[in-house]
Amino acid sequence: EVQLVESGGGLVQPGGSLRLSCAASGFTFSSYWMTWVRQAPGKGLEWVANIKQDGSEKHYVDSAKGRFTISRDNAKNSLYLQMSSLRAEDTAVYYCARDGIVVVGAFDIWGQGTMVTVSS
Amino acid sequence: DIQMTQSPSTLSASVGDRVTITCRASQSISRWLAWYQQKPGKAPKLLIYKASSLESGVPSRFSGSGSGTEFTLTISSLQPDDFATYYCQQYNSYSLTFGLGTKVEIK
Questions:
Q1: What is the mean pLDDT of residues A3-21?
Q2: Per-residue confidence at B94, pLDDT binned at 50, 70, 90?
Q3: CB A50, CB A33: distance < 8 Å
Q4: Helices H, strands E: what count in chain B?
Q5: B63 burial class (0-12, 13-18, 19+ CB within 10 angstroms)?
Q6: pLDDT band (50, 70, 90) for residue A25
Q7: How far apart are CA A95 and CA A86, in angstroms?
Q8: Which of A9, A45, A64, A116 could join A60 in a cystine, given CB atoms 3.0 to 4.6 angstroms apart?
Q9: Do B98 and A44 touch (CB under 8 A)?
Q10: What SS3 class is residue A70?
């Protein structure tokens, strides 16, 4: 079964750091771009970052640049999002999603999400 | 960044109705547009990619059309399982953006 499972969410104080993980199974992880998307409580979807198959290319939403780092370990079939200098507005459910192989941007497989709460 | 504007924000409809949701891009995105369905507490589900290509396993009552800056998602005959929020998303540029969503409610 094709599956993505996120972990690592939780409560963190403003200015703190958190590392999210996403474990992939059921497909050739190293063949796909991968993406993080978040959703603040009661709000819409916001793309956060994506990463190329070999990690050589990464893109971020402006609000994440300089604070978040996306990475992957193809040997472990895992995707990561290192978040630092966290703000209240980063509070959201964070989803990892499978992106394309050649054409990037339509996400066909999603995890169940992990909740990040930034609060003192 | 490319802005995506969806309308309406909320739509009340009955089972069997034909439903159309519109998504407009602030600049041309060719056909690089996807549509997703999301139910409360669940992850989004890809319905349509490249403006009109139906994702595998998605019922044929869903269809997408458009190019450039104007796109539509149509549900030909609304079913009980279709009451949800729908999002459009452009992927013409590396800065990907979603619309704010359209909630389809029971009339």
A1: 98
A2: confident
A3: yes
A4: 0, 11
A5: middle
A6: very high
A7: 17
A8: A64
A9: yes
A10: strand
